[in-house]
Amino acid sequence: MKEIVANITNMSKSFPTGEGDFWALKNINLSFERGEFSGFVGPSGSGKTTLLNILGSLDTPSKGEVEVLGNQIHKINQLQAARLRSRHIGFIFQTYNLLPVYNVYENVEFPLLLMKMDANKRDKMVKEAIEWVGLSDKVKSRPNQLSGGQCQRVAIARAMVKKPDLVLADEPTANLDTENSLNILDTMFKLNRELSTTFIFSTHDPKVIDYLKRVIRLRDGEVASDDPAPGI
Ligand SMILES: Nc1ncnc2c1ncn2[C@@H]1O[C@H](COP(=O)(O)OP(=O)(O)O)[C@@H](O)[C@H]1O
Ligand SMILES: [Mg+2]
Q: What is the pTM of this model?
């Protein structure tokens, strides 16, 4: 039987506004298995980021239940959420979110500094993650010395260095040209296969959708369809 990584049951999310509550997500029911390469697809405002944030324990649902790697996100406290994120979840953002004064090595090392780990082991893991994304010749470069594609590869290495169970990638190709988009998709797909990491994307980029093995379409905060895709 496949291991369930995340399970969402009758989940809704509202935000308070001047005119009352706005329901950004409505009655979501979804489940994700280990090793999936799946994504939320929908226009801007359809609820993709809100859903990824809840799966990543950065936000909590207003109604229903969300379980991620055995943690109940609807009940979790901040310390438990921080521990879940630092050990088990990697995040990749549209804008890379690298630390500008740190070089490539230090950016990738950062998540490991939050975990107790011996320095030799940490060094080995950082170098390995930088190698996965093909940037071993850039370890000393800072983000402003790199292209957008290279910055996103650093962000992938940073997300993957601790070998998380789950990677959440919010529109990771939105600022990249076609060549760089395909390059980072190849890298993530390879890591998904080799490390059995579960990837969940949010996107409206057709290049990303082509890579996904499961496409969950969102429309106005609801799941409009949920289909296996042939992928590559
Ligand atoms: N903190 C917030 N306060 C109020 N409304 C929000 C907040 N976050 C998101 N929303 C609203 O929820 C809807 C879904 O947003 P989002 O999840 O960011 O969509 P997407 O990522 O698909 O573009 C949008 O209408 C957005 O304006
Ligand atoms: Mg978004």
A: 0.96
